[in-house]
Amino acid sequence: MKAAPDAQKRLIDLQELDGSLDRLAHRRRTLPELAEIERLEARRTELRDAIVAAETEVGDLDREQRKAEQDVDQVRARADRDQKRLDSGQITSAKDLSGLQTEIESLHRRQSDLEEVVLEIMERREAADARVAALRAEREKAEEELTALQARRDEAQQKIDSEVELTTAARKGVAGDIPDDLLALYEKLRGQFGGVGAAVLHRGSCQGCRLTLNTVDLNRIRAAAPDEVIRCEECRRILVRTAESGL
User: Fold this and answer.
1) Could you read off the pLDDT of 23-80 as tens digits, one per residue?
2) Which residues touch 203 (CB under 8 Å, ≥6 apart)?
3) Is the distance from CB of 37 to CB of 143 less than 8 angstroms?
4) Angstrom distance (rounded) from CA 161 to CA 25
5) What phi and psi values does residue 107 have, to the nearest 5 degrees?
6) What does pTM read for this prediction?
7) CATH of 31-159, one of 3.40.50.2300, 3.10.20.30, 1.10.287.1700, 3.40.190.170
């Protein structure tokens, strides 16, 4: 392949611009805000599920408390009825009086036990309410942090996108100075070799693979016409000759 020496040198300008575009793309993919946003979004999902579970527990405890309070009311009402019967003087049998007194005492013990159950449920309900409040507060904080991070991410991405736009425009101008066949070869090699399709030959070394060329290869390059497109024998990238090539 033949190409004017100036056109070949423009490949290095193009390679620098492409390297800048690659670095900008990498910066955009690896913004620190992205990982933090992902973490906070996952935490937000965890908090949402935890809040649903805690609210469900509160609802269950509400029902449990109402049932326990109803049991207390029923036992209390029965004890009150028995006490009224006892106080009415209508029961004269000693055996019946003794039985009724025993039942009242039993009902009072049962009421006391049920009231303890109600208190225990109320304590559990208070703890569950506190968990719900804490989880909601944490979720609100996470939402605020997430909003701030998203704003920082958007700002950083906009800056990168502006740089990409300017660099892309500059690249278009440089690419226009390169013959189509040489540009196509460069693009092909760039895709094969990690984004680097052309490299400078500097003091006998290829700056693409960083290897020093042997004497035979250097002599071959010295003998080549200025417009001949040279390839590195080691990495196969396009080698661009300059005054610093050491030829």
Assistant:
1) 999 999 999 999 999 999 999 999 999 999 999 999 999 999 999 999 999 999 999 9
2) 244, 245, 246
3) no
4) 9
5) -65, -40
6) 0.74
7) 1.10.287.1700
